[in-house]
Specification:
single chain; alpha+beta; 3-stranded antiparallel β-sheet; 6 helices; 3 strands; about 55% helix; about 20% strand; elongated
Length: about 170
């Protein structure tokens, strides 16, 4: 008799078993091998219940996402404290968090905040990366008025102060 789901020899497939209400109650892993039985094509299939493994994998993924978010928020808190104490690296990294939308939705306001933080970093000792990042934002008009020449000048300043990123941007 025919199998109620497609068999693909040599591959591992997942099959969800549902109850009468359509809720998935079991997850099976199906491994099939093609063979011949009494002169006709047949399949030998092994089924393995992976329901618990799938549940644990989902729970682990959710837990990991929560930890990553907590770690991101802690990093932002630490960068903010460092920037308040006039650390160019702290201001630059906090600016990166705002510009990349780490732990927040990226929008015009976060771009403007990133620009302010990069500007502060650029004015501090060791702020080469801040100058480079501010130059990039200025060159393309992210969070600040677009000004290609000023952006280029800031990137050049970053390169002169030792920012590898800035030197690569200059070509």
């Amino acid at each position: 008799r025919a199998c109620p789901f497609p068999m693909v020899a040599g591959s591992v497939q997942e099959l969800g078993i549902k109850d009468a209400a359509g809720r998935e109650i079991k997850n099976l892993e199906v491994n099939a091998t093609a063979t011949e039985w009494e002169g006709q094509q047949a399949y030998i299939a092994s089924l393995r219940d992976v329901t618990e493994w799938k549940r644990m994998t989902r729970a682990l993924k959710e837990s990991n996402e929560k930890l990553v978010e907590l770690d991101r928020m802690k990093s932002i808190e630490l960068f903010k404290g460092a920037c308040e104490r006039n650390s160019a690296v702290g201001c630059t990294e906090l600016g990166n968090s705002y510009f990349r939308g780490a732990g927040m939705d990226r929008n015009k306001e976060t771009d403007q905040e990133a620009a302010k933080l990069y500007e502060k970093a650029c004015s501090l000792w060791g702020g080469a990366e801040g100058c480079a990042r501010l130059g990039y934002l200025t060159r393309f008009g992210y969070g600040v008025k677009m000004d290609s020449w000023k952006g280029y000048s800031l990137i050049e300043k970053g390169c002169q102060q030792g920012s590898g990123y800035a030197c690569v941007e200059l070509g």
